[in-house]
Amino acid sequence: MNYREQKIIVKIRKEHNYYFAYFIELRRLIPVNYIGTKIIDAFFNKNYNLDEIVKSINSKRKTVNKKDVSDFLHNIKKEITLPYEGGYPIIGKEQLDAPIAVELQTNTTCNLRCKHCCQAGYNKIMPINRVKDILEILYKNNIFEINYDEKNFRNLIKIF
Ligand code: SF4
Predict the structure, then answer these.
(1) Model confidence, pTM
(2) Same structural domain, 30 and 83
(3) Centre of ligand 1 from the C-alpha of residue 110, in Å
(4) Which of 34, 69, 81, 154 has its CA 20 to 30 A from that of 10?
C-alpha cells in the first residue's frame, strides 16, 4: 500500500487514558497513546516525512527520535494491512464514552413490505430539527462514522 498516493484519513478520539486512531476507509481502530496520535496524525493526515514528524513532536521537548517513529509507523502499517481477526481486547474490557459508529435512519420509506418487517408504517420522515440535534450530539461525542440513507439524508441536509 502506497500511503503517499492513497490518502488515508485518520480520525482520533480520546477515550479514558488512551486514544483511538480510526482509519476511516480501512475501518480499522487502533488504540494508541498521546505521542502515537501525534505520529499518526502527522504521517497520515498531514503527509509529513520522518524528519518533519520528529521535529513537530520534539518542538517543545525531546521525546522521540527517527528510529522510534519509523518503528512505530512500521507496526501501525502492519496492523492496518493485516486481515482483521475480530475484536479489540481493550474495547471488551472498558466502557466506551461514545459509540464508534452510528446508523441514522431518517425515514421509514421502503416499498418491499417484507412479512417480518417491524416497522409500523412506511411514510415517516424524521423532522429536520431532530436530525440536526442528533448530528450535533454525534459531532460533540466524536462519533467516528455515521451510516445513513444517502438520498433522503442529502435532501434533509440541503435544508440546513
Ligand atoms: S424489513 Fe421492512 S424496512 Fe427492511 S426491507 Fe423489509 S419492508 Fe423494508
Answers:
(1) 0.76
(2) yes
(3) 6
(4) 154
